Amino acid sequence: MLRLKSFLIVGGLVALVSPAVAGRGTDGTVNVLFWQAASTMNPYLANAPKELLPISLVLEPLAGVDPNGKLFPQLAANIPTLENGGISKDLKSITWKLKPDIKWSDGTPVTAKDVVFSADYCMNPKTGCAVLSDFQNVAKVEAMDDLTIKITFQDPMGNPYIPFVNFGTPIVQAAQFANCIGEKAPTCTEANFAPIGTGPFIITTFKPNDSIRLKANPNYRDPDKPQFAEVNIKGGGDAHTAALAVLQTGEYDYAWNLQLAPDVLKKMEKAGKGRVHTDFGGATVESLWMNMTDPSSSLPPDERSTIKHPNPILKDVRVRKALSMAIDRATLIAIGYGFMGRPTCDVIPAPADFAADNTSCLAQDIPGAKKLLDEAGWNPGPDGIREKDGRKLKLLFVTSTNAVRQQFQEIIKQWWREIGVDTELRTLNPSVFFGSDPGSPDTLYKFYADVTMFAPGGSIDPAPYLTSRRCDKAPRPATQWQGTNITRFCDDNYDALIAELNSTANLENRGEIVKKLNNILTVDSYVTVPLVWRGVATAVSNTLGGVVVNSWGSWNVQDWFRKK
């Protein structure tokens, strides 16, 4: 029997303070530093945390995930299960009920038609939806009445809690986005920058890649929340500046994702203005991603970094494996994360039911890496850089501007030089690198480099993330360079296992499939090279109460308050 608990895990509740409710808008302004600034406020056109977390203050899903990894109803009246009849016995449909009397921030009622529209909006192939993989098994979404939505799947859905569950797939207002579907999606600036929502706040000003100002939603369903009248989210800069502003100067109240050396953070804490929380609940893994396609600028724009042209160097698994073998993960953690990092060979290190627990990559092996490159026909040239068929073994390694990532780049370049690989390093502004502008040559999705480094967030159920690595999820011109299969890796066996996973309900069987999929991406193919299982470090002002650090879900800003 399918039970809700089969798909839920326990994460860490880091800090929870229950305020004495003072009433909506009584605590002034809360200031947040989010150094990876948002480029849009439409979660369906950009699905990175830098967009999703701010957007979660405005747009909401049917259900969310709490810090303990458990589902809770947001716009929904309850969580559908087999026991309450919300999930069909054949696992091919799930029926949701909306809470009655929920209003959009403009005062109009939220209905099942808004949910149906949200599905149609993302599932339209011309929209370029960044989370289309969350709907990949959906046959149809129907409004049974004003408050009832039925989602029917093409095949039995082992875990039906994917569409409209958690902050990555919220409900948008059909009336606002009616003329923004398909090819028109990226052109609707007003809707994309200031969506009408049901959450605790309303967007008053949005400056892409810079700042967001919000005010309390007068139609929010809890009359006593939010206690802050305004939220000021400042983007850009870097993690170091963000940490200083909370922990030392006290200019800001909250700063997220502080990828700084642990000793630096501990020193800042001594100023007494704030504290650092670290949580491993979200299974975030800093990894290298190998471009399986040719990023050469000599190719036509519509063919560059597409499957039409395999990467001339990285198409050989022996090269990719050698690059992994040359890395000393323990050293990376020592210089970059300390108590905030753990070495890993897996892209899915948690929860335990899904973790393959591979250890083969943990010990650095320079001689072994050199031997593999010898076997692959890459021979050392006069300058020590390997050559093959007249081509130098030279790679372009790009990542976002970040102190820890730049340290990693430099030392990885040294290790790769030891095995005869020449590496050109490049860094990009995080707001641009993680942005979604199809006209920019510098986005992660264009991937105009051989190797990149970043850390996708984890999920209580790995299926959506693993599904996002299917062959058809590769960014390309036809999708306006949107897509989640960044490496462009394509394997029929992998896709077949994804189909099996998405139709399997038994938790133990799902775990075994996930482990196989993890291995295909890592220790079998090395298209993804995991480095560090990162804890998420967040700086919180000592004057800010009610904060729950939740690696699985969204910010709980509606519960924040100013300590008296």
The biggest sheet amounts to: 11 strands, mixed
Structural class: alpha+beta
CA distance, first residue to last residue: 49 Å
Query: Which range does the strand content fall in?
Result: 15-25%
Low-confidence stretches are: 1-20
Give the helix proportion (percent range).
Answer: 10-25%
Oligomer: single chain
Shape: globular
Tally the helices.
14
Mean pLDDT, rounded to whole units?
Answer: 91
**Radius of gyration (Å):** 23 Å
Number of strands: 21
Sum up the structure in keywords.
about 575 residues, 21 strands, alpha+beta, 3-stranded antiparallel sheet
Question: What would you say this structure looks like, in words?
Answer:
Helices cover 22% and strands 20% of the residues. The protein is globular, with a radius of gyration of 23 Å. Strand 7 (201-207) and strand 8 (211-216) form a beta hairpin. The chain is of the alpha+beta class and 564 residues long.
Brief overview:
The protein is built from 14 helices and 21 strands.
SSE diagram, text form:
Layout: E1 29-34, H1 49-55, E2 63-65, E3 71-73, E4 93-97, H2 112-123, E5 138-145, E6 148-153, H3 174-177, H4 189-193, E7 201-207, E8 211-216, E9 230-235, H5 239-247, E10 254-255, H6 262-269, E11 274-290, H7 317-325, H8 329-336, E12 341-343, H9 366-375, E13 379-380, E14 386-388, E15 391-392, E16 394-400, H10 403-418, E17 422-428, H11 430-433, E18 451-454, H12 463-467, H13 492-501, H14 507-524, E19 528-541, E20 544-545, E21 561-562
Parallel strand pairs: 1-9, 1-10, 16-17, 16-18
Antiparallel strand pairs: 2-3, 4-6, 5-6, 7-8, 8-9, 10-19, 11-18, 11-19, 12-19, 13-14, 14-15, 20-21
Helix pairs in contact: 7-9, 13-14
